[in-house]
């Protein structure tokens, strides 16, 4: 926590000063005669009410302290929505995504994770959706209409390009789409293939474009290798956050040996080494997701971070509200427990 006027924190010295005056006043004894037949009962009554008399004063002093902190204009470091930010979601829709080692399936877990991201993302954030297998397809161009992106998720289920996994080409399309978003251009559209590469932008580590890349396999086809695609993202200044979805024991019924098991020669395990290297090369973060819960957690975390920038937010109003609440409580306690005339 930082303060706009830190010297005003010296006003907190008022609190111990008032507390000292209160303690001094409590020590002053009023001498008067009292007739009471049972001294032990009187002592019990006095001890039982002593803490009640102190409560209103304590609440009042806490309210004064909150006001003093508020005067110093406190600020906290937080994340705020960034203007013109764009996140490009890239989802592997190859046949291996039908594997049920992650319940109910890898593909269903990916779709639920994207829904979680959309729930957490700022309303003004531009989001695009790219689906790939052997080919790459734009399901939704960069848009602030998050409902459109939700509807475009249906393309993930119906995507016809099951054969192959072109990780490098998918990154190339994501980079080109991000560059068009920066330039304010909207090329392509839902269900339109996009394979051309735009010229790289100058390196810009403050670029508002981020790529969230999910895959469950390893490169099997494509014009570019995964690291060549990562180099394009790095040159454009776009961090790539990678999610490796799946376990080493994935299998597809009727695929591989023909007996409901995966052929030992065909691995459905994600290429975690390559996906981690892509994230490191571009300044992103790598997330291993061996369960639907892990994928959900990764997308929830990124949904709360991507499209936002660090900022200092003033929270003076919080301390003013606390002070007001404490003063109300102090007044209520004083009215309830204050001595009354017979």
How is this structure best described in words?
α3 links the parallel β3 (86-92) and β4 (126-132). This protein has helices at 14-27, 39-71, 106-120, 146-152, 154-158, 167-182, 226-236, 272-282, 292-305, 316-337; strands at residues 2-3, 74-81, 86-92, 126-132, 136-143, 192-193, 209-215, 240-245, 286-289, 308-314. The radius of gyration is 31 Å and the shape is elongated. The two termini are 50 Å apart. It contains 10 helices and 10 strands. The chain has 2 domains: 2-76 and 313-337, no CATH class; 83-306, Rossmann fold (3-Layer(aba) Sandwich), CATH 3.40.50.410. Helices cover 43% and strands 17% of the residues. The protein is of the alpha/beta class and 342 residues long. The strands form 2 sheets. It has a 7-stranded mixed beta sheet, sandwiched between helices.
Give a short synopsis of this structure.
It contains ten helices and ten strands. The protein has 342 residues and is of the alpha/beta class.
Overall structural domain count: 2
- The largest beta-sheet arranges its strands as 6-5-4-3-7-8-9
CATH architecture of the largest domain: 3-Layer(aba) Sandwich
The best one-word shape is elongated
* Low-pLDDT runs: 185-205, 256-265
CATH superfamily of the largest domain: von Willebrand factor, type A domain
CATH topology of the largest domain: Rossmann fold
Largest sheet: 7 strands, mixed
Count of DSSP H/I helices: 10
What structural class results from the helix and strand content? alpha/beta
What is the CA-based Rg, rounded? 31 Å
Q: Total number of β-strand segments? A: 10
